[in-house]
Automatic annotation (TrEMBL):
Annotated ranges, domain Uroporphyrinogen decarboxylase (URO-D): 40-328
Protein name: Uroporphyrinogen decarboxylase (URO-D) domain-containing protein
Lineage: superkingdom: Bacteria
Matching SUPFAM superfamilies: UROD/MetE-like (SSF51726)
InterPro entries in UniProt: Methanogen_methyltrans, UROD/MetE-like_sf, Uroporphyrinogen_deCOase
Length: 334
């Protein structure tokens, strides 16, 4: 088959058609450097130009959504390069009143779209770019850490008032991201887990706000990805979200790719165990996971990817092994 560019490969995959090779998208944090828009731009461009992934998930620091409200954060050496909240904003229920509307074109929010815009201009539309956006309830948890769960059950009105504001700011941030060059969003929820909430709780405090954001950007995007973080995710509850791509830790928690295919009509993104196989498995183990993902999905509507962000210690050899295996799948099929 004639080689395809990134867009043609993705568009064929979205239609459920075969392409010249199985698409691949891997992403990682750039800890500490990601706090500077210029450095984040340069590192993102180097990452994409080196590996030529079929989709570029933009990787701002995971705490950007709470810093403008006053949360203090730090990189404490996490294996995946993520920052943590060291000083939350909401310590008592009445602190939810501190969450007022902010302009996402300035501050920490604004820096992420400045960096994305610079990246998009440099890449010139050659690859789909998704801005990372956190669900309102995920942002609320980072603002309050574990007291969020008590307020869900004991002070729902106070939390809903804050979620209303967070949702409005998130919508404005998404629209700005699309205006500066993003082709869609990577929408991450970290609370849609049966280990954390009941289904009814997530419907009330999570899903209604999630869908409001996705509805607000409908028609402005070429492709969006949903990421459900954690174990025992509420896959059935999320499977009707209006997104084209769905990503979760399919090697670590249910459902696997084959069962997910029966419930979600779009493209599945996964197949790799980034915590074990990419770090310790070697070329053969990586190739086995890629092949198994292709078998589970019949090689259609699949993008090979991690369950979540790569560990920063992931070697170039492992990344190359993923790309080689994906290309080999098409060579065998041909």
């Amino acid at each position: 088959m004639k080689p395809m560019d990134h867009w043609r490969r993705l568009e064929a995959t979205l239609r459920g058609e075969s392409s010249d090779c199985v698409p691949v998208a891997l992403w990682r944090h750039f800890p500490v450097d990601d706090m500077d828009a210029g450095k984040l731009t340069a590192l993102t461009l180097a990452w994409q130009r080196k590996w030529q992934f079929d989709l570029l998930k933009f990787m701002p620091p995971g705490t950007y959504g709470v810093e403008d409200w006053g949360a203090k954060t730090a990189y404490a050496g996490a294996a995946n390069g993520a920052r943590v909240v060291t000083d939350p904003v909401v310590r008592r229920t009445e602190d939810w009143e501190k969450i007022r509307w902010i302009d996402p074109r300035s501050g920490a929010y604004g820096q992420q779209n400045i960096a994305l815009g610079q990246t998009a201009r440099s890449l010139g539309g050659t690859v789909p770019i998704l801005q990372t956006v956190f669900s309102p309830l995920t942002t609320a948890r980072k603002l309050a850490t574990e007291r969020l769960f008590a307020d869900i059950r004991c002070h729902p009105a106070a939390l809903h008032a804050a979620l209303r504001i967070i949702t409005d700011v998130t919508i404005d941030f998404c629209i700005e991201a699309l205006s500066v060059g993003a082709h869609g969003i990577f929408f991450a929820t970290q609370l849609a887990s049966h280990r954390l909430l009941t289904t009814v709780e997530y419907e009330q405090f999570g899903k209604q706000y999630d869908l409001e954001i996705l509805d607000a950007i409908r028609g402005r995007c070429r492709v969006n990805m949903l990421h459900a973080h954690g174990d025992d995710i509420m896959f059935d509850l999320l499977s009707d979200y209006p997104v084209e791509l769905f990503n979760w830790h399919d090697r670590l928690t249910d459902p696997d790719l084959s069962r997910a295919r029966r419930h979600f009509p779009g493209v599945l993104v996964g197949g790799l165990n980034e915590h074990h196989t990419l770090l310790h498995g070697g070329r053969d183990a990586i190739a086995d996971e890629v092949q198994d993902a292709v078998v589970q999905t019949d090689g259609r509507k699949l993008i090979i990817g991690p369950g979540c962000v790569l560990p920063v210690e992931t070697s170039d050899a492992s990344i190359q092994a993923v790309l080689d295996a994906a290309r080999n799948m098409e060579a065998q099929a041909a």
